[in-house]
Amino acid sequence: MPVSLRRSVNGYAPEMSTMSDSLRAVPLFSDLPDRELRSLAESMQERSYKDGQEVLVEGEGGIGFFVILDGSARVSVGADEVRTLGPGDSFGEMAIIDGQARSASITAGEGLRCAGMTQWHFKPFVRDHPEFAWAIMQALVRRVRDAESR
Fold first, then answer.
1. Does residue 112 contact residue 88 with C-beta atoms inside 8 Å?
2. Which residue has the higher pLDDT, 4 or 139?
């Protein structure tokens, strides 16, 4: 894990990485102990997108799971924009879980910054962290209920 050092009164003191700090604010990860959060941060890559840039394309295969750290993203199914995502929201997990094509397109809004995890990191992390698996299930249930209410 990358550790940055900052000057303290008595010399240098280690502080938690920016990625760990960002992930701590995400509801999916809020119940993870610090050690597991640092492990998660090590397996995720940060990426920024320009406004209007395609992040995921409906109908294509997918091996990535993403969490929005900053900015926004638009979710489209077919030609219809169905919702907007913001910090703390996630996307991409459905294609990883069931191996099917992406169910929606994601287009970057202004200032989109995400943390992403590949399938080969996602599956073992879910298996080894039941509190995260439970949080993912809850998020998916909310998404299904939201879709059913439309």
1. no
2. 139
Residues 6 or more apart whose CB falls under 8 angstroms from that of 67 comprise 23, 26, 28, 29, 44, 88, 89, 90, 114, 115, 116
Distance CA 77, CA 105 (A): 6
Question: Are 108 and 51 spatial neighbours (Cβ–Cβ below 8 Å)?
Answer: yes
Q: How confident is the model at residue 17 (pLDDT cuts 50, 70, 90)?
A: low
Which DSSP letter does residue 50 get? -
User: Which helix (H) or strand (E) covers residue 17, if one does?
Assistant: none
Report the DSSP beta bridge partners of residue 68. Answer: 114
Q: What is the DSSP letter of 93?
A: H
With contact defined as beta carbons under 8 Å apart, do 54 and 105 qualify? Answer: yes
pLDDT digits (tens, 9 = 90+) for 35-52: 888 888 988 999 999 999
Name the residue with tokens 């998916």: 140
